[in-house]
Amino acid sequence: MIDNPAAREVLELNQRLLEAIATADWSAYNSLCSSDLTCFEPETRGHLVEGMAFHKFYFDLEPGAGPRNVTMATPNVRLLGDDAAIISYTRLVQRLDADGAPMTSRVEETRVWQRVDRSWKLVHIHRSPPV
Ligand code: GLY
Known about the structure:
Elements (H helix, E strand, L loop, with lengths): L4 H18 L3 H7 E8 L8 E2 L2 H7 L9 E11 L4 E13 L5 E15 L2 E9 L4
Parallel strand pairs: 1-6
Antiparallel strand pairs: 1-2, 3-4, 4-5, 5-6
Helix pairs in contact: 1-2
């Protein structure tokens, strides 16, 4: 149970961010990110990538059909002072496969949030390859 208000806020914003990814909602995603966001993701092929263009590429593709449900399993939020937080969890995404059968994919993620001008922004992502 996460009861610190700032930690809960980061948790809620992170869930909103993951739902923006699941629904290909670029406007919502972009509004939650710092323009100089950095990331290591499987898609960056071992490179640290900075900026939003890398992420926008995927939002501009045709969104996957069918419903999706996103769960942060066993999230941990570590506050670093008043204006920074690290959140780590396993992201579970439920969707339908090509035959219409339900399936769940899983990735481990760490995201760093920073409060700038009283607004939390995602500033760094580190994600494992999907299993
Ligand atoms: N590549 C988008 C995200 O995981 O935030």
